[in-house]
Amino acid sequence: MACLGVFVGYFPVTTVSVSLPVIQQALDASTADLSWVSDAFVLPVAALILTAGVFGDVHGRKKVYQAGLGFCVAGAAVALSAQSIVQVWVGQALLGVGAAALLPMTLALISHVVPDPRERGKYIGLWTTSMMGSLAVGPLIAGVIVEHVAWRWIYLLPIPLSLLTMVIAAFVLEESRSHVARKLDWPGQITAAVAVVALVYGVIEGGATSFGDVRVVVASAVAVCSGAAFVVVERRSPSPMLDLTLFRSAAFTGSALVVMISFLGLIGFFFVLSLYLGMVQQLSTLEAGMRLLMVTVLPMVLGTAVGRLMRYLSPRVLITSGLVITALALFTLTNVGTDTSFGSLAWRLALLGLGLGLAFPCITATAVSSVPYQQAGMAAAGNNAFRQVGGALGPAILGALLTGKAVGTLPDHLAAAGLPGSTSGEVLRAVHADGLGAVAGLPLGEATGPALNALSQSFLDGLQLCLVVSGIVMLFGAAVAAVLLRPARTPKGGSSGTPVASGGGRAAGTGHGSPAATAVADSQ
C-alpha cells in the first residue's frame, strides 16, 4: 500500500511536465504560467507535508492516507475539465494536497511495519522503485493520450487509480498512530506555508519581470520573516511540527540539504528539458516521453538493488558517487542542439538516471534511519518537505534563468538570421508580452522559419546555462553528502538491531555491515 500510495502521489509530476508545450499552445500560456503549473502541484506538497505527518500521528495514518487519495480524485477532476490556465493551477494544487497527505503516510507505514532499519532499507528501495516507476510511465501515458485525444485527458487515469487504491486500503490497511503524544502545530504550519509560497512566488515573478519589482521584494521579505518566525515558533512549541533537535543529527541535516539541492536541479531539469523537446526539437508528447523514460527507467530498476546495497556500503559513498555521475551527465548535455538524435540523447539521459538511481534511495533511507524510532515519521515528513521545497524552486529558478538568457540573446540571433528591424521588433514584443512560445503564433510569412530558428538558438543558450547550473548544484549536493554523511562507527560489541524505546540516544538498529542504518550513531 505504501508503494501504491507513492505511485499515485507522484503520477502527475512527469505526466504534466511532458505535456507543458501542448498546454502552453492550447491555453496561450507564458513561460511563467507554465512554471506555476508545476509549482501549483509542488507548493502544497512542500507547505502541507509536515502537517499531514502530524495529522497521521494524531488522527490515524489510514485516515490521512484515504483523505490524500480523495484530494487526488478532486484535483484530477478539476483539471480534467479545465478551460483556462488558472483552472489547471487549481487542479494541480488539489493534487498537491493529496500528494502531501500520501507521501509521509507511505513512509510512516513502512517504518511502522518494519522497525528494523537494516531490513527497512530494502522496503524503502521498493518505495523508491514505485516512485520512479510512476515518473517513468507518466510521460508514455501522457504521450499516447495527447496523440489521440485532448491533453486534458491526461488527468483521467488518476481518478480510477485513486478510487481503486481507496477501496483496497479500506480492507487491507490497519489504523496506526504515533505512540508519542502530539498536537497540531498551527503557528508552525502557517509560518512554514507562508515562507515557502512567498519564496517561490518571488523567484517566479522575479524571473518573469524583474527582481527589483516591488512585489518580488515584498515577497522575498515575507519569505525571510516567515522563515525566521517558523524557527522561533518551533523552538517554543510544546509539540512542534518539525522538531528542530533533529538537525543535531549530521546525517538528518545532510540528507535534508542533499535532497533539497538535488531535487532543485532534477525537477528544474525536467521542466526545461520538456520545453526543449517540444519547442526546439518539435517532438510529439509521446516522442518526448520516450526520451524522458531514459532518465527514470534505471532508478526504477535499481531501487531494490540499491536498498540491499545499503547494507554493505556507506550512504556517503552511494549518494556522493550518484550525484557526481548525475552532474557529469548534465554537463554532457550542454552541447545538444536542434538536430540531436535520439541515440545521442539517450545515453546521456541514461547516465543521468544511473546517478539518480544510486543516490535517491539512500537519501530517504538515511533520513528515516538517522533518528530514534519514535521520530521516524517526522523525519520522513521533514525529508519529503525539503524534497518538495527543492522541487518547487527548481522550475522557478531554472525557468527564470532560461527565460532571461533566451530573451537576452534573441536580438543577436534575429539579427544573424537577416530579419528586418520591423520583424525583429514584432518578435521581441511578442516574447516580452507572452513568453517564448508566442513566436510560433505570429503571422510572419516567409520570415517565420528564420524567426523560429533564431528562437531555437536563443532557447539553446538558455538551456545550456540551466544545465551548467544544474550540474553545479548536483556537485554541491555531492560535497554536502561527503562532508555531513560521515560513515558511522559500529558500536563496540555490536547491536541487536532493536529500535530505541524513547527519543534521544543512539539511532535504532546499528548492526554490523549496515552503515546506512547507523549513519547518525556518532552524531547523536
Automatic annotation (TrEMBL):
The chain crosses the membrane at residues 35-55, 67-86, 92-114, 126-146, 152-172, 184-204, 216-233, 254-277, 289-310, 317-337, 349-373, 385-404, 462-485. Residues 490-524 are annotated as: Disordered. Pfam families: MFS_1 (PF07690). Keywords: Antibiotic resistance, Membrane, Transmembrane, Transmembrane helix, Transport. It is found in: Cell membrane. The keyword Magnesium does not apply. Its main location: membrane. The keyword Transmembrane helix applies. Gene3D superfamilies: MFS general substrate transporter like domains. Residues 1-489 form the Major facilitator superfamily (MFS) profile domain. It comes from the Bacteria. Residues 502-512 have a biased composition (Gly residues). It is a multi-pass membrane protein. This is MFS transporter. It comes from Streptomyces hyderabadensis.
